Amino acid sequence: MMKWTAIESPVGVLRLSSDGVGLTRLTLSDFQDDARWNGTAERGDDAVLQLAVAQLTEYFAGTREVFDLPLRPVGTAFQYTVWEELQRIPFGVTASYGEIADRIGRPSAVRAVARANATNRIGIVIPCHRVIGSNGTLTGYAAGIERKAWLLDHEGAELGLLASSMGKPD
Predict the structure, then answer these.
(1) Furthest-apart CA pair in the chain: how many Å?
(2) So what's the pLDDT on residue 51?
(3) Are 32 and 168 contacting, i.e. CB atoms less than 8 angstroms apart?
(4) Beta strand 131-132 pairing with 95-96
(5) Among 63, 93, 86, which residue's Cα sits nearest to residue 156?
(6) Helix (H, G, I), strand (E, B) or coil at 8
(7) Which one of 128, 131, 138, 157 is the catalytic residue?
(8) Is the pLDDT of residue 43 over 60?
(9) Cβ pair 85, 103 in contact under 8 A
(10) What is the pLDDT of residues 131-141, one digit of tens each?
(11) What is the distance between the alpha carbons of residues 139 and 45, in angstroms, rounded to a whole number?
(12) Between residues 18 and 30, which one has the greater pLDDT?
């Protein structure tokens, strides 16, 4: 049985779900009681969720830079390849969609990389927020550009003028 929990974070409520083997989802939600979660999983706790909550708490406290969690994302072989590459981007570093495409040996697949980024259901842990436009702009973050800017600022990433002009969520 799938389990889910929600925790407060500096960027809003995080919703996490687990199948008992690995983390299946981590999203930012502005809603405390989201019916999409209630219908697919039981609110509760398991060892995976406990570990994820502990590591996320450390991340937001500034004491964790690398996550060590069992993950169970759902996607295509191409998406898995992209998500694995995203996990190689170090804390505080950014990469462009084109750089990711090059790194996975598919230099013409920039749009497909962007789509794989957009379908990532385990945000923060699979750090799609570290991927930016080729011109250094903050682009494409389902939870909002302000949150992406906050996460990158939290990690100490060099963002340039555009990002410094972006607001941070309360």
Answers:
(1) 46
(2) 98
(3) no
(4) parallel
(5) 93
(6) strand
(7) 128
(8) yes
(9) yes
(10) 998 888 888 78
(11) 34
(12) 18
What CA dihedral angle connects 89, 95, 96 and 99, to 10 degrees? -70
CATH of domain 77-165: 1.10.10.10
Q: Where are the domains of the chain?
A: 3-61, 77-165
Q: What is the CATH number of domain 3-61?
A: 3.30.160.70
Amino acid letter at 45?
D
Whether 25 and 40 have beta carbons less than 8 Å apart is answered as no
Q: What is the pLDDT of residue 169?
A: 38
Q: Who contacts 32 (Cβ-Cβ below 8 Å, separation ≥6)?
A: 6, 13
Structure confidence at residue 40 as a pLDDT band (50, 70, 90) = low
Q: Are 84 and 75 in contact, with CB atoms under 8 Å apart?
A: no
pTM of the predicted protein model: 0.87
29 is catalytic: no
**Is residue 82 within 8 Å of residue 117, measured between CB atoms?**
yes
Q: What confidence category does residue 91 fall into, taking pLDDT thresholds of 50, 70 and 90?
A: very high
The answer to whether the beta carbons of residues 54 and 69 sit under 8 Å apart is no
